[in-house]
């Protein structure tokens, strides 16, 4: 086996591992589309709705009742979120909020509800 063959095998294994990490289900992460997310949010009595986009994105329009905690600050500001409440999280497309959800789950939150497709998929009211 040549060194270039070994390199390509290692590269392929790395890519497969990254894809696996990206798409494997995460315990405690509830991925919801627009309507189920909205219904669960409306039915929840004790909730935190978190927008993990940057401040300028939040100011351009957000879901009513949302608190802006950018992804870059979620680790240091997790104490602002009660672990006894229902946590709902979103971003622009669903990718940053999925990352933030994983961080919260690792911090001891039992369940996090992520809006699949982010605010781009949201059909409910928005504050502009």
UniProtKB/TrEMBL annotation:
Sorted UniProt keywords: Membrane, Transmembrane, Transmembrane helix
Coiled-coil parts of chain: none
Keyword Transmembrane found: yes
Positions of transmembrane segments: 6-24
Sequence ranges assigned to domain Rhodanese in this UniProt record: 43-124
Protein name as annotated: Rhodanese-like domain-containing protein
Transmembrane listed as a keyword: yes
Gene3D superfamilies the record matches: Rhodanese-like domain
Highest taxon of source: Bacteria
Pfam families in UniProt: Rhodanese
